[in-house]
Amino acid sequence: MCDGALVAAAEEERFNRKKHYSGFPALAIAYCLREAGITIDDVDHIGYYEKPLVKFNRILETVLADWPFTFPTWLSAMPQWLIERLHIGREIQKALGTDKDILYCQHHLSHAASAFLASPFEEAAIITADGVGEWTTTAWGVGRGSSIEFTKEIRFPHSVGLLFSAITAYLGFRVNDAEWKVMGLAPYGKPTHVDKFREVVDIKDDGSFRLNMRYFSHCRSLKRMFNRRWERLFGQPQRKPESELTDFHRDIAHSGQKIVEEIMVKMAHHVHRETGMDNLCIAGGVGLNCVANWRIFEETGFENIFIQPASGDSGGALGTALYISHSVMGLPRKFRMDHALWGPAFSDDQIKDALDAAEAKYEYLEREEDLLERTARMIADGKVIGWFQGRMEFGPRALGARSLLADPRSNKMKDIINAKVKFREAFRPFAPAVLKERAHEYFEAPEGLDMPFMLLVPRVRKEKREIIPAVTHEDGTGRVQTVTEEHNGRYYRVIKAFGELTGVPIVINTSFNVRGEPIVCTPRDAYHTFVHTGIDVLVIGNYIVTEKPSEVDFEAGMKRSVALETGAVHQG
After folding, report:
1. Residue 107 Cα distances to 3, 141, 263, 270, 333, angstroms
2. Average pLDDT of the chain to the nearest whole number
């Protein structure tokens, strides 16, 4: 942040290529400083998104409360806490080479600030929900101007985020990685286990809740979310990863998703009644549950809703910076998060250097009109396009800068991308990216509704479902991204070109990566993914690559590209 405006934001995983990396973000920090044109000596304030001492107190109390059953957790967690995490300020100073003080923001306050202080609202109700911060797992309050005040909170071990993580783990998916798989699987099931979930969690009319801890293990174990009572209640053991998904698993996903939706909708109803406000901001990992978000928008009385695109913990960095800038320093609010394009961009010269180093064969198109026309035509012809343009997205969604684009009219396209490009489960849905001014024609959403971050899921109009089957999910919905020329010009124009060609102003948009890898960041990442997958064409800057090399040529070229890129990073 510089003078109240965001300059740069990016996750470390994109640079070091380690998905969900949780170590010190050295490369991301180096990028942010480079983008701002400063060094660490020019930085006035450094913030951290939670309070380690308070969090350690929660862990210590939890361990002592269940002793001696928590002895393995104590052995596992304490060395890291005593050596590193309790001294995180010192570790940050050491890594950055500075003696500046580190400022600490409460975890859920950083979530709240990341949404409200980045929103277009002068005042709004705020809901934050995740696994756990220090003690808080869910909170609601009000933001006015630059002030944020929480009214109510729910504390550990009762957590809607940890409930959803338990469902994720029970279905054999990775916790903190695959929760959206549960959302994607849910429409294929039935609510046959809702009553059993009511045994697991008690939900009040105001959305407050308590977990029945007889079924959970997260107070005793860092590795296991639920216990054998859970498995006996639902009648089957935990699904083994990569094993067959049955109707039972689909029904568990459906029922669990419904319970989470019920909690969030009841809570939002209550918050609307209590505050009387028209605007709502949502943040925290549960804010990525786009099905629940849409129900909140439709059913709870709020006229406007804003969900921060990096809603999980990576957005805590943004929230902390915003809170320091506006709520502590008192700088006037002038930043609105209208888009998520805050990562690195690469010039055509840099792209050419990377392609040349890899000995790629490419075509350069000087006129944008030619590039857009060619790309639109290839999408219409059934090609899967690797689309690499401008600044990289901040947050977990690809939003038209590091995306795969394809034809939404094809019945086969969803299966083609899942099997040949993404190497992932066939039930996973794809998002429709649509011109904002045309979205209401295809989706049951108010005309002009802004949905830029793929965090709302309206229904596809019945008469349009046969036209765009590849982006119509099993339940008739679509995880929509509305696109404007103001905030993502070239992406808007390629969708418009496709619409002029086909009559459908929508393309499939899914993230430019393969299963288990972060979204691509650099030209080298993009070319590597293009070569090793079923992507048909790479459109990168003003270059088009259609030919893939032999394996021997590719490996030799990539070694040269790595050397070139590493040198460029170190030289800034």
Report:
1. 23, 14, 21, 23, 21
2. 94
Task: Measure the CA–CA gap between 207 and 204, rounded to whole angstroms.
Answer: 5
Same domain, 171 and 275: yes
Give the range among 222-231, 422-431, 554-563 with minimum mean pLDDT: 554-563
Rounded CA-CA distance 427/414 in Å is 9
- Whether residues 367 and 512 share a domain: the answer is yes
Residue whose token pair is 């406000």: 277
8 A C-beta contact, residue 483 and residue 435? yes
CATH number at residue 292: 3.30.420.40
Specify the higher pLDDT residue, 167 or 224. Answer: 167
Phi, psi values for residue 90, rounded to 5°: -65, -40
User: What is the rounded distance in angstroms from the CA atom of residue 121 to the CA atom of residue 31?
Assistant: 30
Q: Is the pLDDT of residue 58 over 60?
A: yes
d(CA 215, CA 225): 9
Query: What phi, psi does 235 have (nearest 5°)?
Result: 90, 0
Beta strands per DSSP E along 165-250:
201-203, 209-211
Convert 134-156 into a string of H (helix), E (strand) and C (coil).
CCEEEEEEEEECCEEEEEEEEEC
- Backbone CA torsion sign across 273, 274, 280, 282: negative
The reported pLDDT for the residue numbered 552 is 44
Question: Residue 451 has which token pair?
Answer: 């949905």
Number of domains in the chain: 2
Task: Identify which of 517, 514, 494 has the alpha carbon closest to the alpha carbon of residue 433.
Answer: 494
Crossing angle of helices 247-275 and 290-299, rounded to 10°:
40
465-524, pLDDT tens digit by residue? 999 999 999 999 999 999 999 999 999 999 999 999 999 999 999 999 998 899 999 999
pLDDT at 556 over 60: no
Phi, psi of 147 (to 5 degrees): -105, 140
Angle (CA) 285 117 434, round 5°: 65
Do residues 413 and 559 both lie within one domain? Answer: yes
Q: Is the separation of the CB atoms in 302 and 118 below 8 Å?
A: no
How many H helices and E strands in the chain? 20, 17
Distance CA 44, CA 102 (A): 10
> What is this structure's pTM?
0.93
Helix (H, G, I), strand (E, B) or coil at 527: helix
Residues 538-563 have a mean pLDDT of: 75
E strand or H helix at 47: strand 46-48
* pLDDT in the model for residue 571: 39
CATH number at residue 403: 3.90.870.20
Going through 268-317 in order, the beta strands assigned E by DSSP cover: 279-283, 304-307
